[in-house]
């Protein structure tokens, strides 16, 4: 069984395939997907499966198929400064990508049923901030995760511009989800075997659009004895950033902009490691689906013509591989980090500007 696109060799390869199949359609979504390696969210020993377009589950840890996440990211229509709520936030993979787009003046909250998964998500978020060079290329809205059942959210909770629910929503819970949304906001959730985009157009009006046929495990309803009160989930407060934090954001932004202007003025083009070019045959979407875990995934079928085309280009691929081997490759440099380290500042202040990063 396969997914909607062919398997990739690494994260960039996977994104190339998602773009080719038109699951990723905008530059900002592509940049977010490339910035965060899907393989980093897999347990050791399972990373080989990270770049297949398949869902993955191990215990309580779960990742949806990449084609599902890309459709969700596109349907949310994310912009800087928006507030986002992830119901069933899981590993935090999606929330972290959202944070790269909505930026430091957005709101990024997640609710997850399992405590061990919230701890896993916090660890993965910490690893991304401290170890990934991609972090320095963006202004980031750090996700905040809380443990709880997303069907028990406090009735006086604030509303959000964008909401995603990562579990199947029963019809009688649809209105519950809608009231969490601001007027003009967008809610994406699986309901009645369809990934659905809902836009709140007024106080009591909504517009719905089906995006993709899917099959998600349903939301878990909390079981309790008669008369027992539910454990109400309190969403994180919306806080104002401190002056110290604002200073860090603007200093990093200024240095990043200066580095960009300097490289453009000098005509510098940073050459990065190149991979062997692989010719791919364009695949088309078809209305055939297969079950993978608890999700229904589109199944792609390759025609005889596509297979024949791949054979014809085999010799060309081998020639490209030999040619690239002769190209001198320059190591990519984290310019922002180098600029901060060169500033005449105390080491403690440099560490703060670098978010205490380890690399």
TrEMBL record:
Task: Name the membrane topology term.
Answer: Lipid-anchor
Under the GO molecular function aspect, what terms does this record hold? Answer: protein-L-isoaspartate (D-aspartate) O-methyltransferase activity
Residues annotated as region Disordered?
Answer: 302-323
GO CC annotation? cytoplasm; membrane
According to its UniProt record, what is one Pfam family this protein matches? Answer: PCMT
Q: From which residue to which does the signal peptide run?
A: none
InterPro entries tied to this protein: PCMT (IPR000682), SAM-dependent_MTases_sf (IPR029063)
Protein localization? Cytoplasm; Membrane
Q: Which UniProt keywords apply?
A: Cytoplasm, Lipoprotein, Membrane, Myristate
Q: Which domain of life is it from?
A: Eukaryota
Described purpose of this protein according to its UniProt entry:
Substrate recognition component of an ECS (Elongin BC-CUL5-SOCS-box protein) E3 ubiquitin ligase complex which mediates the ubiquitination and subsequent proteasomal degradation of target proteins. Specifically binds to the methyltransferase cofactor S-adenosylmethionine (AdoMet) via the N-terminal AdoMet binding motif, but does not display methyltransferase activity. May provide an alternate maintenance pathway for modified proteins by acting as a damage-specific E3 ubiquitin ligase adaptor protein.
| Family the UniProt entry places it in | Belongs to the methyltransferase superfamily. L-isoaspartyl/D-aspartyl protein methyltransferase family.
Name of the featured protein = Protein-L-isoaspartate O-methyltransferase domain-containing protein 1
Organism, as annotated: Menidia menidia (Atlantic silverside)
């Amino acid at each position: 069984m396969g997914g909607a696109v062919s398997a990739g060799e690494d994260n960039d390869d996977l994104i190339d395939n998602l773009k080719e199949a038109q699951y990723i359609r905008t530059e900002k979504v592509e940049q977010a997907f490339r910035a965060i390696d899907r393989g980093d969210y897999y347990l050791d020993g399972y990373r080989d499966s990270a770049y297949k377009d398949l869902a993955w589950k191990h215990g309580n840890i779960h990742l949806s198929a990449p084609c599902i996440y890309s459709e969700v990211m596109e349907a949310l229509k994310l912009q800087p400064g928006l507030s986002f709520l992830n119901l069933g936030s899981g590993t935090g993979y999606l929330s972290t990508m959202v944070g790269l787009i909505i930026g430091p003046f957005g709101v990024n909250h997640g609710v997850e049923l399992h405590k061990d998964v919230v701890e896993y998500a916090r660890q993965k978020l910490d690893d991304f901030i401290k170890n990934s060079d991609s972090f320095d290329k963006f202004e980031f809205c750090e996700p905040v995760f809380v443990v709880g059942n997303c069907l028990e959210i406090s009735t006086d909770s604030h509303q959000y511009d964008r909401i995603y629910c990562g579990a199947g929503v029963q019809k009688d819970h649809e209105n519950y989800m809608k009231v969490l949304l601001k007027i003009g906001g967008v809610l994406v959730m699986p309901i009645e075997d369809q990934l659905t985009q809902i836009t709140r157009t007024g106080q009591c009006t909504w517009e719905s659009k089906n995006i993709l046929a899917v099959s998600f495990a349903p939301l878990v309803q909390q079981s309790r004895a008669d008369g027992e009160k539910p454990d109400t989930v309190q969403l994180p407060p919306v806080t104002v950033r401190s002056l110290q934090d604002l200073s860090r954001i603007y200093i990093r932004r200024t240095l990043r902009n200066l580095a960009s202007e300097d490289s453009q003025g000098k005509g510098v083009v940073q050459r990065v490691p190149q991979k062997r070019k692989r010719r791919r045959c364009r695949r088309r979407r078809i209305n055939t689906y297969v079950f993978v875990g608890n999700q229904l995934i589109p199944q792609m079928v390759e025609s005889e013509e596509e297979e024949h085309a791949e054979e014809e280009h085999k010799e060309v691929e081998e020639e490209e591989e030999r040619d690239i081997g002769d190209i001198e490759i320059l190591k990519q440099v984290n310019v922002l980090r180098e600029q901060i380290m060169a500033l005449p500042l105390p080491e403690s202040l440099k560490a703060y500007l670098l978010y205490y990063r380890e690399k």
